[in-house]
Design brief:
The structure is a homodimer. By secondary structure, chain A is an alpha+beta fold. Chain A has one domain: Thiol Ester Dehydrase, Chain A (Roll), CATH 3.10.129. Chain A has four helices and eight strands, in the order ββααααββββββ. The first copy, chain A, has a five-stranded antiparallel sheet with strand order 2-4-5-6-3, covered by helices on one side. The longest helix of chain A has 14 residues. Chains A and B meet through helix 1, helix 2, helix 4, strand 3 and strand 8 of A and helix 1, helix 2, helix 4, strand 3 and strand 8 of B.
């Protein structure tokens, strides 16, 4: 049984890191369009995108935000984390086929309320910084090792 | 033909507002799990969620971020906008069935590079602030009125 586990506030150390990678496919951009409602043709229409400064379809900026949030919720601190805040700077476009890696690093712990601050750097396969930011979370107090739900099965198109 | 249009930097005024609403369904949370990879059971498993402080399944925090980004890209300034940055504070959970409204308000314009700052407030159907934040964008210089792509058709489950 695949499991999902967390790091409790007490287990977390300053400087602790985690990485979470994902290849961005056309399918991801279509799913993000469907769930957000952002159907801008720069994301969905290759002919239109070719007329823009980007030359080809780019992922929605906030798709990188979604993947940062998954890195936090799945890896560090993991299940039971309460998401308090996130800042994001969108530095470079993410193109279809790019492999992006979210690098998290713990920079601060505040004992009293269990707050943890993490630097969030998203790099592409060429080691270019595409998104940077800072997350603030309330880390879990209790250790959790739970069954890992499977990814919902989704089909695109009729 | 349904169209999509934008506000150019010159057309945008301080104090200008836009609203974008969406009912958050179980389907949206499943799609967000699929696209981000965050399959935490607090979002997907009602029995597990019942054991948490939230008592029932809650949406991923960053789903509200995705909807803010869609409000900016679809409504104000709309197509052609370059997303530069976003801050987010997650204040209250969003539950399945909640209707959330993103309220955008232009608070600053910087002529030289076409930068525009927008306050972003997300309210639920009870007028409670669930997410707040600030967006920084580069507004389009050119007026666009383009064909509105339809929402990708997506099916969940086998």
């Amino acid at each position: 049984m695949p499991t999902l586990s967390n790091y409790t506030f007490d287990e977390i150390t300053i400087g602790q890191t985690a990485t979470y990678s994902k290849r961005i496919e056309e399918r991801d951009v279509q799913l993000f369009a469907a769930v957000s409602g952002d159907v801008n043709p720069v994301h969905l229409d290759a002919a239109f995108a070719a007329t823009t400064q980007f030359k080809s379809c780019i992922a929605h900026g906030m798709l990188s935000g979604a993947i940062i949030s998954a890195a936090i919720a799945m890896e560090l601190p993991g299940p039971g984390t309460i998401y308090l805040g996130q800042s994001l700077r969108f530095r470079l476009p993410v193109k279809l086929g790019d492999i992006i890696s979210v690098n998290l690093e713990v920079t601060e712990k505040k004992d009293k309320r269990g707050f943890v601050t993490l630097d969030c750097n998203v790099l592409n396969q060429d080691d270019e910084l595409v998104v940077t930011g800072t997350a603030e979370v309330m880390a879990p107090r209790e250790k959790l090792v739970i069954e890992r739900p499977s990814l919902p099965s989704v089909r695109i198109g009729d």
